[in-house]
Amino acid sequence: MTSSKQNTLPLSRSDTWLIRVLAVASTAAACILVLIVLFMLQEAWPVLQRIGLLRLLSDPAWHPAEGLYGLAPMVAASLAIAAGAVLLAGPFGVASALFVRFYAAAPLASAFRLALLLLAGLPSVVLGLWGLTVLVPLIGRIEPPGASLIAGVLVLALMILPTIALTTEAALDAMPESYLRGAAALGLSRESTILGVILPAVKGSIMAGVLLSAARALGETVVLLMVTGNVVRLPVSLFDPVRALTANIALEMAYAMGDHRAALFVSGLMVALLVLLFVLVSRRLGGGWSFNV
Amino acid sequence: MFEAVREQAMLRVFRDRGVLIAIWSAAAMVAGVFIWLLADIAMHGAPRFDLSFLIDAPGNSGRSGGIGPILVSTALILTVAIAATVPVGLGAAIFLSEFTRSGGLPGRAVGLSLDVLAGVPSIVFGLFGNAFFCIWLGLGFSILSGGLTLACMVLPVFIRVAEAGLRMTPGDWRNGAAALGLSRLAVLRQILLPAAAPSLVLALMLGIGRSASETAALIFTSGYVDRMPASLLDSGRAISVHIYDLSMNVAGGDPGAYASALALIVFLFIINGAAKWITDSLTARRIVTL
Q1: Which of A2, A152, B48, B176 could connect to B259 by a Cys-Cys bridge, CB 3.0–4.6 Å?
Q2: Burial of B239 (0-12, 13-18, 19+ CB in 10 A)
Q3: CA–CA distance, B219 with B208 (Å, rounded to integer)
Q4: Which of B99, B136, B155 sits opposite A4 (nearest CB)?
Q5: Contact A219 B124 (CB under 8 A)
Q6: Averaged pLDDT score across all residues of chain B
Q7: How many CB atoms lie within 10 A of CB B140?
């Protein structure tokens, strides 16, 4: 690719100004991240300094009014929900992509693909509303109260499924045609080709998509706020109400003061670091960033 | 020997049948849940969804009345977000695609910070917006704070999509323009930006869609107040926050929440449709295809 920087003409005056303005815009864009890190650290500092990360994870309970800042149950709940959602959405997402690419006839495939795209574009608050009014009562009939870990897992799985399906589909498209020809020449059935050739070939990209969606699940707030019951406790059963780390922030920010507020910013930092870790590993595996979906 | 081979072939047939059934039933379940979801929202939202619902002020904490002021607040928040995103985002996209060497330090630094920013969860944007815009800059819970927080959130997506569009324009055009002695500004204005217009529209629409869907980043920046906002410094309730609040905090608020959800989805469909229509017509009008 050739671009304007290969242009060796002398800069006109308007060009000099243009470049200055553009550099300012880029610097401003890059500074947002710096500002976020600075402000998060500044707000979290009182607790990080006086209470320390260790106590945040080892305190027996979350009673900010009494100086107890145990985040462990909420970290566990967040991780459990994200893991459950990924375990559920992974197979369904991959199967959806295989369905679009190898099973459905053209009109059905494009309709199904459109449905996946629409599902990907649904606001999370709408999914949360549906989970709250439809799924939670259904689960409550099996085992009260209904708002529970499993409700969070189900709605989040629905939310991240399109991501997994669409990244898998992109990986299938990028796979060399010769693999399929080779499999056909060997007389492999469609299913043997899928199990023996296609899935091993796109394994890495699928993993990248799965990790990316795990990151999205970990960072999701509103859905969890609406369907998981928001009780701070270590999840034991799937039907236990739990409170995710992100939901805790949204619930208590409205009235938190002092150390309590700082502790919420620490949990925000923790969520951000966990999410970025997943995104980083996902990128290493060859996936794109979240906006590529 | 022969028996063993036949047995293996049989097993393989069974396995193939199993995979076939598994994939079809997984797809059927996904499609089924999707239809269930849409039908549920359409059915529960439709009874209250009419013109007066879109215009009237909410009454009785949203149980009755409509979402008029909420739509106005949402539109204002989106306008602020877009007004802040477009100049900064367009500038950064042009800088990244036209004025940095690929692999050079400035380009890499800005690119990396944008990629990290794209991964930051929305609740963290909410915390940051609260600490920075509401408190440090003293904007309080306001439409301005909410819109600027959203701008920070959608900026990386906007820049990357716009940048990709600019990069797709052929280098020959730049060489030709340089051979004619055009200034870089003229090349951008006359050639590159018009050629990349479909991507720029896509970037804009992605930004609007994402801003309109966001809840967590807005709860603590633009606030809950459901009155008609008088200025950008007033708190205003975005439609997604309205849905959340009605379903969680207002007993008997579900019908209103569903009707608002329907309104939000209809808006998002219109935005997506408009994006597709504009990009298609822009692409069709072009003389040279890329």
Answers
A1: B48
A2: buried
A3: 18
A4: B99
A5: yes
A6: 89
A7: 15
Locate A260 and state its tokens: 């309590």
Query: Using the beta-carbon criterion (under 8 Å), do B240 and A226 form an inter-chain contact?
Result: no
CB pairs under 8 A between A and B: 282
CB contact under 8 A, A112 and B31: yes
DSSP E strand boundaries for A79-198: none
CB atoms within 10 A of CB A137: 11
Q: Which residues of B touch A28 (CB under 8 A)?
A: 88, 92
Residues of A in contact with B180 (CB under 8 A): none
Q: Which of B95, B118, B132 sits opposite A26 (nearest CB)?
A: B95
| Measured CA distances, A135 to A129, A155, A213, B37, B79 (Å) | 10, 8, 22, 10, 35
Report pTM.
Answer: 0.90
Q: Is the pLDDT of residue A289 over 50?
A: no
Structure tokens given for B36: 């269930």
**Chosen from A13, A26, A271 to mutate, greatest number of chain B CBs within 10 A:** A26
Write the CB contacts of A63 (distance below 8 Å, at least 6 apart in sequence): none
User: Is A265 in CB contact (< 8 Å) with chain B?
Assistant: yes
pLDDT band at B100 (very low <50, low <70, confident <90, very high): confident
Indicate which of B33, B114, B127, B189 best probes the interface with A, i.e. most A CBs within 10 Å of its own CB.
B127
> Is A115 in the B-facing interface, judged by CB distances under 8 Å?
yes
pLDDT tens track for B144-199 = 999 999 999 999 999 999 999 998 888 888 888 888 888 888 888 888 898 888 88
CA distance B73 to B56: 14
- A288 vs B32, higher pLDDT: B32
Pick A5's closest partner by Cβ from B12, B98, B155. Answer: B98
Phi/psi at A41 (5° precision) = -65, -40
The owner of tokens 């500044």 is A42
Cα(A22)–Cα(B61) distance, integer angstroms: 46
Predicted pLDDT of residue A4 = 53
Contacts of B277 (CB under 8 A, 6+ apart): none
Question: Which residue is it, tokens 């003061």?
Answer: A257
pLDDT in tens, A168-186: 999 998 888 899 999 999 9
Output the pLDDT for position A54: 83
The C-alpha atoms of residue B290 and residue B279 are separated, in whole angstroms, by: 14
Measured between beta carbons, the chain A residues lying within 8 angstroms of B105 are none
Q: Is residue B152 within 8 Å of B89, Cβ to Cβ?
A: no
Can you tell me the distance from the alpha carbon of B220 to that of B142, in angstroms, rounded to the nearest whole number?
9
Task: Chain B: give the shortest CA distance to residue A130, in Å.
Answer: 7
ipTM for the predicted complex? 0.89
